[in-house]
Amino acid sequence: MLEEKYLEALRKFRLIDDAFFSVCFDDNAKEVEYILRIILEKDDLQVLKVQTQKSLENMYGRSVRFDVFATDTQGKLYNIEVQRTDAGAIPQRARYNSVMLDYHELQKRGEFKELPESFVIFITENDVIGDGEKIYHADRIIRETGKDFNDGTHIIYVNGSFKGEEGKSLDDLIHDFFCANPQEMRHKQLANRVKFLKENRGEVDKMSNSIIAEIFKDELAEAKEKTAEETKQKTLIENIRSMMKKLNLTAQQAMDILEVPEDEQEKYMALI
Q1: Of 66, 131, 164, 217, which has the highest C-beta tally within 10 A?
Q2: Sign of CA dihedral 67, 116, 36, 25
Q3: Beta strand pairing status for 153-159 and 118-124?
Q4: pLDDT, tens digit, 9 for 90 and up, residues 67-82
Q5: Mean pLDDT across 257-262
Q6: In whole angstroms, how far apart are CA 25 and each of 33, 35, 59, 91, 225?
Q7: Helix (H, G, I), strand (E, B) or coil at 220
Q8: What is the pLDDT of residues 151-165, one digit of tens each?
Q9: Is 193 exposed, middle or buried, given 0-12, 13-18 or 19+ CB atoms closer than 10 A?
């Protein structure tokens, strides 16, 4: 039964789904470069390094975790987010991501003038901006003159609900982000990557935590809602033990799926 649910969840994954998106592009400069070239219309762009689920700490407030963080050969920074809910892609969220890119880069460089050009890109399931365009570019301008402020920051929204024309690169990319079946995808390079991930047993095993989390997301969400602070430890231990027994997981795997903070895992390990 579990195997059937496991495979069914895997077949349904699309690039717009956060878990699958992260697996697809993790340490994969080639594919990230491919989609950035399409979105930015820069055929000469060369991505140097890619990280998924990269956390940037903020000692003064809320930290942030990027779906994809990339740098290119010119030192430019890229944050790509996939977002299925409008609330998760509001302009203030994009603004904060942009600020966090600057904050951490400034810690390394020290001088404001050394801050590199940065791009925060949201690929959304719905038309978050609401004007029916397939792509929105938000750049600062001087209101009185209409000239670019040239601060080097760029925020871009790709509208996943846009129904475009087959054969146009961006239109086809939007289409592909919502395809569960790689045979229906139009960009063959991305289709081959998705096909490989879904059919190669070794890659499937790497995705096991993401797939299991998807299968049990409703149960996990309900458990989180019911867990009050005073019963958190007891309930969490029960959940870890239950997942270990039912899914034949190690305690470490169960805690990773339940998102137990790393600095608390040793404590729970001793209690299990």
Answers
A1: 66
A2: negative
A3: parallel
A4: 999 999 999 999 999 9
A5: 86
A6: 10, 10, 28, 24, 31
A7: helix
A8: 999 999 999 999 999
A9: buried
39, 156 contact by CB (below 8 A): yes
Burial group, residue 215, by CB count within 10 angstroms (0-12, 13-18, 19+): middle
Say what angle helices 188-199 and 29-40 make with each other, to 10 degrees: 150
Neighbours of 100 (CB within 10 A): 20
CB 67 within 8 A of CB 50: no
The SS3 call for residue 154 is: strand
Nearest of 72, 84, 82, 77 to residue 100 by alpha carbon? 77
Give pTM, 2 decimals.
0.76
